[in-house]
Amino acid sequence: MQRKLICKILPPGDYLTRKSALSLRQPRTITAYGPTALLLSWEQRIDPAISAGVHAYATALNHHPAVLECIPAYASLLVRYAAPRITAATLKEFIYDLRPPDYSPEERCVHELPVRYDGPDLKSSAQQLSLSPAALIELHCGPDYQVYQLGFRPGFAFLGDTPAALNIDRRATPRTHVPAGSVGLAGRQTGVYPADSPGGWQLIGRCPVPLLRSGTDPVRLRAGDLVRFLAVGSEEFIHLQNNPPPWPER
Amino acid sequence: MAGTLSLRCLHPGGGAFVVDGGRPGYRALGVTTGGPADARARKAANRLLGRNARATTLEFTGTGGRWLLNGSGQIALTGADLNWRLNGRLLENYQTLYVEGDGLLTSTPSSAGLRGYLAINGHWHLPRALGSAEAGLPGVPAVTADWSAIINWSQESTFRMDLDTRRHLPSEPVSLRVSPGPEWDWLSAEQKERLVGTTYRTGLDSNRQGIRLESAEKFFYDLPTMISSPVLPGTLQLSPAGPILLGPAAQTIGGYPRVLLVTGSDDLSEAFQVRLHDEIRLELKA
Asked: CATH number of the domain at A21-97, please?
């Protein structure tokens, strides 16, 4: 019953490069976001190729000495810079001339996250999607999901895309309390709540592996990582809760 | 000379928060930057004790609650007028205060402003995550009854006091200078005019995450849906329920149009001193 969960770093160019050896997507617009940030916007779609473009620019711009931080989202990137050291116009020109290498991350972490599919919305979601709960679970465990972005709460990863058959609306009324570890569906996204919080996603299960910890490296999932879900029974759930897999070393 | 002062929470009042320099640089992990809602009042509290502008302080909301002080040390209170008393005696805001022995620090609801700050001279021994003692990550408890901190100091600060205390209380009515945000041009000229021309009241759900700007007239904007994108504090998001001015504890990514930005740090400080149901106006910078 003891399962070894994968949590490993793939070598450069092993994964997505093969899948999407497309030319790199470039931002369509670069606009000021207040006096100390630039907003780079791509075509406004949720698409792995666009996401790869966002992360390629984020990686390249993080090396710029005047850039304080890059915040990637689905199809946009916010670049905060040290205002006296560089002007918006100069940084903009630098970004226009920038040709980041095709997205072949040096570190691409793959996480296997076990899920006990017993969420309060599992049955109603399956019914709404005209699926059996078993079929819903199988569909949810099928793909390798991309971590498009982190946001909402510390460590909350927006994963996608779920199969088209799992496209479901958020709950009409959000819950005021969603327990940590809850696995949810919303649109064609899925995600695991890292901590207790309010939330409106359809809850289909629970993940026993913690996504947050104390210390200097508190967040398990990072934008650009890959996640796959594994269905586990209650016994294994408890075992994994007591013996969580190691934290990825980055 | 050296000494120790301990601080224990009996009641956190309308909401008490440890605020320091926050966690800048971790927004890509979904970790909000944090920091005080009124940076200038907090800075004044630290300056009165000769501390770094971003040194650890407590932020109070609306009313300050009840606290036990024990030991010897120096404190300073700034921001909203929370009618602080030590063992029943009224305390002055904006000056160095000396504490000796056991003390009960109490407050009543604010008579002006919304957020108050307590600085204590010395190093605060508190659990930290990613360099900050602000709540929000594992291992850093929120301030509730029984929360406590030990503060060690090695050097006494000289006596200081500020005379222009009105500076950190909101003017009436508060007018915030705003500039266009990324989605400003999604609005028609008429919608822009209405958005800026309305007088708002701060909603009951306002907190460190954001100020909800309420108006009698609702905005019925048929705007395109937006794929969620990064947001920064000071952004005015246009939600279906009305505009929200994002604060230091706002989420890092949002899905509502970012129509306006409050870029002046002092404007933002003033906005977060506006009491619930009080007025806020916007003023578009050319």
From this structure: 3.30.1360.40
